[in-house]
Design a protein that fits this description.
Layout (H helix, E strand, L loop, with lengths): L1 H19 L3 H19 L7 H48 L1
Helix pairs in contact: 1-2, 1-3
Length: 98
């Protein structure tokens, strides 16, 4: 169980780095890896000790924060892309009028 929790921490650290760089696609892949690790951890529920439970709660909080940051990054990317497209349309219309 300890090895799985350590692997989960490593993957969360990788996710944190990817989210910080705002790599949305890579973040999604990393979330899938973490999801599979969590499924594996919780498939062995009887093996979870009190200290493991505390660690899982801390990891859960970290995951929640990273998911929130990822959502903010996605929203920001969508907004920026929308502005770029609007500006290109405006430039295209301006060039047609000229």
């Amino acid at each position: 169980m300890q090895a799985k929790l350590e692997e989960l921490e490593v993957q969360l650290n990788i996710l944190e780095q990817v989210v910080a760089k705002q790599y949305v696609k890579e973040s999604t892949v990393q979330l899938e890896v973490i999801t599979n690790l969590l499924k594996d951890v919780f498939s062995q529920v009887p093996d979870i000790t009190g200290s493991d439970q505390e660690r899982l709660q801390e990891l859960n909080q970290q995951l929640i924060e990273l998911c929130h940051q990822l959502q903010v990054a996605r929203d920001s990317s969508k907004s920026e892309l929308s502005n770029i497209i609007k500006n290109k349309k405006k430039v295209g219309l301006y060039n047609q009028i000229k």
